[in-house]
UniProtKB/TrEMBL annotation:
Pfam families: Methyltransf_2 (PF00891). It comes from Corallococcus llansteffanensis. The active site is at 262 (proton acceptor). This is ArsR family transcriptional regulator. Keywords: Methyltransferase, S-adenosyl-L-methionine, Transferase.
Length: 351
């Protein structure tokens, strides 16, 4: 056991300078190699609880101390590791990973990460050609990406990508489910993809039933999800339609928009919230789980911000949460408020 030591210093809140950030961006491939290696070797499991000395790490994992020292410098330069050096003896240098590092590395770099899923999109069609794209001389071809998705292959690929990113959203729904709908409720998941979100909610709430409202082209995907989960159609249903052209279906206790409204201009988003008000009964709730504009979310959405530069039909607007709170109040809802979580959830009630 190492001897007790002074409290580890708090992480610096000073932001990296533009030059420091650009140095790191230029070395992005090497930086990812370092973090993936730290994750794969199990170093993050020891660093995050920390503090742990370099000597302990090198002995535990069979690593050369002087080489590990430089490796940890790489992690420190990325802001992922804090370091305390009580003396010049390398093996006594203490380190600690920033809180949440292990989970973040797994989420972003792990085998089922969103970033790996996004690699299947044809982003290379834009790479190195952004000046032409910005001048309107080059764009993403419809064969590579069309919005809304039109071919069966595009629909399936897009919905699979949306399903891959549901983890944080499900965590938020789990945290607040008891206050989102009454027992025995019927939920309409507007633009609910292939039904994966509905499937998870149904597994956790035995008295809930969910209908996915989506374009008719997605019905087969929802049916596949239902069959895979062994759920009856009475619990996981499908309603085909186009919310840009038709009123939202009635007869539900709650209605959700999960990563739907940010894909449309402000007037369309507002009209959909008004349509939700018209469809819900008195006491019904609308649930909005969105890509709100925060530094964390902008970073997580970097791929789509980049990719959609070349797609004029879709903008993917990350709005401040106040936009939704104000629009819900204007539509007639009351008690509009934000419930916290990895993806914040806006909830409002029809009086």
């Amino acid at each position: 056991m190492p001897a007790p030591s002074a409290p580890f210093p708090a992480p610096s809140r000073e932001a990296a300078s533009p030059r420091a950030l650009l140095h790191l961006l230029f070395n992005g491939a090497r930086a990812l190699d370092v973090v993936e290696t730290a994750l794969g070797l199990g170093l993050l499991d020891a660093l995050e609880p920390g503090p742990v000395t370099l000597g302990e790490l090198s002995a535990r994992h069979g690593l050369v101390p002087t080489r590990l020292y430089k490796f940890l410098d790489c992690l420190e330069s990325l802001g992922l590791v804090q370091r305390e050096q009580p003396s010049d003896a390398l093996e006594d240098t203490r380190y600690r990973g920033v809180p949440g590092l292990r989970a973040a590395a797994d989420a972003v770099l792990g085998p089922r990460s969103l970033e790996r899923d996004r690699e299947k999109y044809d982003w290379k069609a834009l790479h190195g050609r952004l000046p032409e794209v910005l001048r309107g001389q080059h764009a993403m071809s419809a064969a590579s990406f069309d919005w809304p998705p039109r071919t069966p292959e595009q629909v399936e690929g897009f919905e699979a990508s949306m399903a891959a990113g549901l983890g944080p959203i499900l965590e938020t729904f789990r945290a607040h489910a008891g206050a989102l709908w009454p027992s025995g409720a019927r939920l309409l998941d507007v633009g609910g993809g292939d039904g994966t979100l509905a499937e998870h909610l149904l597994r956790e709430h035995a008295s809930l039933s969910v209908d996915v409202y989506n374009l008719p082209a997605t019905e087969a995907l929802v049916a596949r999800t239902r069959e895979r989960a062994g759920l009856p159609a009475a619990r996981l249903g499908f309603v085909g339609g186009d919310f840009l052209r038709e009123p939202l279906p009635k007869g539900y206790d709650a209605l959700s928009f999960v990563r739907v409204l940010h894909d449309w201009p402000a007037e369309v988003a507002r009209s959909l919230m008004q349509a939700a008000f018209a469809a819900l009964p008195s006491g019904g709730r609308v649930l909005i789980c969105e890509e709100f504009r925060t530094p964390e979310r902008l970073a997580a959405q970097f791929f789509w911000s980049y990719f959609l530069i070349g797609v004029d039909a879709c903008v993917s607007r990350l709005r401040e949460v106040e936009f939704y709170l104000d629009a819900l109040t204007a539509a007639g809802f009351t008690h509009a408020h934000v419930r916290p979580g990895p993806f914040e959830l806006v909830v409002a009630t029809k009086p």
